[in-house]
Specification:
The termini are far apart. The strands form 4 sheets. Strands 2-1-11-10-7-8 form a 6-stranded antiparallel β-sheet, covered by helices on one side. A hairpin with a 2-residue loop joins β13 and β14. α5 packs across α6. The chain is α+β, with helices and mostly antiparallel strands and 312 residues long.
């Protein structure tokens, strides 16, 4: 019988890359000294900094009088219910909540639980054969990073198909390793850059389908864990929410300055304004920005908010 266990994956600090399982009983104590379950490298932190507890399959983080130095998704908290993909900063340590697969020797109960009302299935993503999905659901219910970790830890083969208002995407997995990433509309960005874009999606649906008979050559060659950690660090500093921008395929137009009331633009905004005039669509502006997606999206969001540009 397969069960889910919760753990934290360390993204920064001397324990970077390590994972700590949250026990079913007793919780996980984060403290200033090695006497706790996980030492927080912060000399100003109290000896007992925070506690993670798992009860009835619900993970809770409680600040233990640390002076508002415990953050969940950048917000200071005293107590917070956690879910997969949440990012925690405690002292100088940044970590992420992940789910792990474990196995129980308990047999399944003989009597099945009462059937729940059927939920409408998400639409079949482009390229997926009808009824072929091995796993499907909503990105709002299961964070994409946690989903990929689950598939990779269990050594899966297949394609994770994503659909959202941003567009559509595919992430290829072979024997538990990320091997490729594609998106629609078409892009000239590298597979790694496409993967990082897809990992920023928080809304939409996913379906995990069997691999094609003729699997394409791998375009992602770096270790999977390294890719996910890099994406998490980049996305934590991204500064632009998904809803702040139109879909990738959206055409952009420059509005007359007199209607926006803007009299001066920053060099970064001027660069993006030129890319809008030259390339016309959001995805092409991102593809051609020399400083990467974060700089492009921040400038795009600022220009959209001030009315210098708009979706055509």
């Amino acid at each position: 019988m397969v069960l889910m266990a919760m753990a934290i994956h360390i993204l920064s600090g001397r324990r970077k890359g390590q994972e700590f399982l949250v026990p079913d009983e007793g919780g996980l104590l984060l403290s200033r000294t090695e006497e706790g379950d996980l030492a927080v490298n912060d000399p100003e932190a109290p000896y007992a900094h925070a506690r993670l507890e798992l009860q009835n399959n619900k993970l809770t983080l409680t600040d233990l009088d640390s002076g508002q130095r415990t953050f969940v998704n950048r917000a200071p908290v005293e107590t917070a219910a956690l879910k997969e993909g949440d990012r925690i900063r405690i002292g100088k340590i940044t970590c992420m909540v992940i789910a792990l697969t474990r196995f129980s020797k308990l047999k399944k109960p003989a009597a099945a639980a009462p059937a729940q009302p059927a939920q409408p299935a998400p639409p079949e993503p482009p390229g997926a054969a009808p009824g072929s999905a091995l796993l499907s659901g909503s990105l709002e219910e299961m964070a994409l990073v946690g989903l990929l970790q689950l598939l990779c830890v269990s050594g899966k083969n297949g394609v994770l198909c994503l659909t959202s208002k941003r567009g559509a995407g595919k992430i290829c997995i072979h024997q538990g390793h990320l091997t490729g990433a594609e998106m629609t509309p078409a892009t000239t960005a590298s597979a790694k850059r496409v993967l990082f874009r897809l990992l920023r999606w928080k809304k939409g649906t996913f379906q995990f389908v069997p691999p094609a008979n003729d699997e394409p050559a791998a375009t992602l060659t770096e270790p999977t864990e390294q890719l996910l950690i890099e994406a998490a660090c980049e996305n934590e500093m991204f500064g632009v929410e998904e809803d702040d921008l139109p879909p990738f395929a959206a055409k952009l137009k420059v509005l007359p300055f007199k209607t926006s009331g803007v009299t001066k633009l920053t060099p970064g905004q001027m660069l993006v304004l030129g890319l809008v005039k030259t390339h016309g669509t959001l995805v092409k502006v991102m593809d051609n920005h020399p400083e990467g997606d974060a700089a492009a999206c921040r400038a795009l969001a600022e220009l959209l908010q001030t009315g210098v540009i708009a979706a055509a």
